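Protocol step 4 of 6: structure prediction from sequence.
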Amino acid sequence: MAFRVSPHAGDGFGCKMREDIFVRGRAAVLIIDDDRQFTALVEAHLAAAGYSSAVAHDPVQGFIMARRDRPRLILLDIAMPAGGGLPLLKRLVKTGPTKHIPVIVVTVLQEPELEIEARAGGALGFLRKPIERETLLANVKAALNPG
């Protein structure tokens, strides 16, 4: 049985908080996607696996949250209104506070050249929706625990 540790829990009982779950009480994974059903599903999968997450439903909010909260990983939809995800990806990888945060692009779009463009733009990974739970969690784990 797995136990979830509160982001505010100390190590008073000799327990060490897993660094991949919490970042000083902040979400480990920032999900930037305008599809509320998808973000709810991803949040549920992440929570069940012990990861904390936060959600932004548009690129502007996502950029603000990424700069402010500095998550350990960003899941970014590239098919969003208000500027879209590819310009945000390029901005995230070039901006000081966010340039070292790995980004996994998620999309429902099927054009093969999007993966090439996303990876060239700085994405660590590329997933097409719908995403199987196991695939999502394997990619999150690999991004948070490289090597």
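Step 5 (inspection) to follow. Confidence is low (pLDDT under 50) at residues 1-25.
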